[in-house]
Write a structure and sequence with these properties.
CATH architecture of the largest domain: Distorted Sandwich
Structural class: alpha+beta
Strand order of the largest sheet: 1-9-10-11-12-18-16-15-14
Oligomer: single chain
Number of strands: 30
CATH class of the largest domain: Mainly Beta
Shape: globular
Largest sheet: 9 strands, antiparallel
Number of domains: 3
CATH topology of the largest domain: Beta-galactosidase, Chain A, domain 5
Length: 690
């Protein structure tokens, strides 16, 4: 392990606040290291606003201790390349290492090992104590012990309270290797490793199958290796490398580790995906991380990165929204509207589970945010099957119907209004015509119209009419977008709001207006606001080639990154959600969309790179576009592109890069193309077939 490896975080002591310990997570299971509980995806207990991730007791929550007089040298390491956390203690004559991971491809398994290694020629036994907090009971599950299975203990039980009356109460089945109080290396042994498995699933059959698979891989000595292989393949396929300051590279690897931990492994269509909450699967106990609910944080802040690097995982996120469409229809109906209104906070059913009514009723931009993720996915993949066969079109249509029913006609202005909302800026509520909300509604209607045409379906006239005539507030005199009707310049704002019109919404405006919006809102945005805000100001300044201003915004993010494991906190004072994937998603968008200038449009993937002074080079190895995987390398002087992989089924579209100057470069698989760094776009090649 090289010194200064930006993807390996090592410390000799743990942070004082246990919330800042690293998480080990896969798409189905998550825990924080040394914690006595874990969570399983989609397993919530509690009714409506009280619904929270059900605490499952965790056999993995233990810590090694050296007996007797030895006060050992300790080290703690999170290796983002292998997806493994380790704790090592060194005493005179031996070392003991505890390794812990959530298996990336066998998603119902978590495992740990303890290795004791003798360092001298002594022949006395060496004992390590295991301090465990594990008790096989839970405040959220009605757990019953079952018979042992292949040497494992077994408990199972249902959550106590369903999310909606009469709704399902998921069952959890757990098998685990019994954990002794101590382990001893015999006098004649030099080194020995003990392995411990935990399998958690929704059925007895799946829990047993996973535990057995784990045992047979252990017998072959390849369980950990199979995890590392699956995780390394994911990291390679989503590789992002920067030549720049070490802190920036470390932040980048930390963000990739925590965000990629949350997504489904490749080729796992059988595993249902349950969405990503702001603090991920390891958090979400009652009273923590918004109870593990899913917000726009997933669709607006995390999704674009996942889409660019791993469209199959992006599709799984959209399928979570499709599965909760019925709940969203009920939300709209209860509020007196048509179509579907996605909940501000979503758990298993799509019904509103926000404990405070005002957000569920007023912060309605979430519905447009969800549809925008569908639009970006469609532009990037042209996957019509999602819409034709897998429920996507029903969702698009329901969102368009909701927006139409939520608008009212203003005789006075001869425009449609959306009244009584809370914008992304949660310091204001009950406002009319939030610029962001109305712009996202307009975008929803335009996409629904385009999608209907692509699917050869009739387009309701009102969709086009309302998209054309919805009001998006604009101040002609000052040439900027007021946040809502009656906003007065200088009024404090909680977080990125109007600046989102430029990116990700790409609402049509001149560079002058874009600049004015940034100038207007940057000084009045609360410095204590949530971490993702500054990344959107950074993207805006990069767009305008104001590199120093972009960098000073991006630097603000660093006060939300904690040491030593690069765990993000929502607010710089340490409050709010921890392991704040939303902030990490914003940060990654600065790298993946800000530095590159990538913009997903209907006709192509635009690029227009801009690097702050400290950054010399950016290499993204897994840009996915229309069935192609591209390796894109950018320096100030040169851009290099190579198609490294193409999908066969459905066949990838042949691509070309086109510069604004008119030069065209066909992109063939396995052939690298380079040209001077300049604005342009990647598009389907009109003249080539594969």
């Amino acid at each position: 392990m090289a010194e200064g490896d930006p993807g390996v975080f090592t410390a000799t002591a743990l942070p004082g606040d246990p919330r800042l310990l690293p998480t080990v997570t896969n798409t189905f299971l998550g825990t924080r290291v040394f914690r006595d509980i874990l969570h399983a995806a989609g397993v919530y207990s509690g009714a409506a606003g009280d619904t929270h991730r059900a605490d499952v007791p965790s056999p993995l929550g233990l810590r090694m201790a050296a007996p007797g007089a030895c006060s050992p040298a300790e080290s703690f390491t999170l290796n983002t390349w292998t997806g493994t956390f380790s704790h090592t203690i060194q005493c005179p004559g031996y070392t003991a290492t505890h390794q812990l991971y959530a298996h990336h491809s066998l998603v119902h398994l978590m495992a740990f090992s303890i290795t004791i290694r003798r360092l001298d020629d002594s022949t006395h036994p060496i004992t390590i104590q295991l301090q465990s907090l594990f008790v096989p009971q839970s405040q959220d599950l009605d757990l019953t012990p079952g018979p042992d299975f292949q040497g494992a203990h077994y408990i199972y039980g249902q959550t106590l309270v369903p999310e909606v009356e009469g709704g399902p109460r998921p069952t959890v089945h757990m098998l685990w290797t019994p954990i002794p109080r101590s382990l001893t290396l015999g006098g004649e042994e030099r080194e020995r490793r003990w392995e411990f498995l935990t399998a958690v699933a929704g059925s007895e059959e799946e829990a047993k199958r996973s535990f057995s698979s784990g045992l047979s891989l252990l017998a072959a000595g390849s369980l950990h290796r199979s995890h590392i292989r699956a995780w390394a393949a994911l990291r390679r396929g989503c590789s992002v490398e920067l030549d720049g300051p070490l802190a920036l590279r470390q932040a980048l690897h930390g963000c990739l580790y925590y965000l990629l931990s949350a997504i489904p492994p490749r080729d796992s269509p059988a595993v249902l995906f349950h969405g990503i909450s702001p603090g991920g699967l390891s958090n979400g106990t009652r009273g923590e991380d918004y109870w593990g609910h899913v917000f726009w944080d997933q669709d607006t802040w995390m999704f674009p990165n996942i889409l660019l690097l791993h469209p199959e995982a992006a599709r799984a996120i959209l399928q979570y929204r499709i599965r909760t469409l019925e709940g969203a229809r009920r939300n709209a109906q209860e509020q007196g509207y048509e179509g579907a209104k996605f909940p501000w906070e979503s758990a298993a059913t799509g019904r509103e589970v926000c404990p405070e009514e005002i957000y569920g009723v007023q912060e309605i931009h979430i519905t447009g945010d969800v549809l925008m993720a569908f639009e970006q996915y469609y532009c990037t993949t042209q996957d019509q099957k999602l819409f034709r066969e897998d429920g996507g079109w029903e969702l698009v249509e329901a969102v368009a119907q909701y927006w139409c029913s939520r608008m009212v006609w203003s005789e006075e202005e001869q425009l449609y209004h959306i009244r009584g909302v809370m914008p992304p800026d949660e310091y204001h509520s009950q406002v009319d015509n939030s610029a962001y909300t109305n712009a996202v509604a307009r975008r929803s209607l335009n996409f629904a119209t385009d999608m209907a045409r692509d699917l050869l379906l009739p387009v309701p006239e009102e969709w086009e009419d309302r998209a054309r005539k919805i009001k998006v507030p604009f101040d002609e005199e000052r040439k900027y977008h007021p946040e809502y009707d009656g906003y007065s310049p200088g009024e404090p704002v909680k977080q990125a709001d109007v600046v989102l019109l430029g990116f990700p919404l790409m609402h049509p405006m001149s560079a002058e207006v874009r600049r004015n919006d940034l100038e207007m809102y940057e000084p009045v945005t609360d410095p204590a606001g949530p971490a993702m805000t500054w990344s959107m100001f950074a993207v805006g300044w990069l767009e305008l080639k104001e590199l120093q201003r972009a960098w000073s915004q991006l630097e603000k993010c660093f006060s939300n990154i904690t040491e030593p494991f690069k765990v993000w906190v929502e607010n710089s004072d340490g409050s709010g959600a921890v392991n704040f994937l939303t902030g990490m998603g914003g940060f990654l968008q600065v790298v993946l969309f800000g530095f590159t200038g990538f913009r997903i449009t209907r006709s192509g993937l635009l690029f227009d790179p801009a690097f702050p002074d400290d950054i010399a080079k950016l290499k993204i190895s897994g840009v996915s576009y229309l069935g192609n995987k591209l390796e894109v390398t950018i320096t100030r002087e040169e851009m290099r592109m190579e198609v490294t992989e193409t999908s066969r089924d459905p066949p990838a579209s042949p691509l070309e890069a086109v510069l604004e100057s008119g030069q065209r470069f066909p992109l063939w698989e396995g052939q690298s193309v380079s040209f001077p760094t300049a604005p342009g776009w990647i598009q389907r090649s009109p003249s080539r077939t594969l």
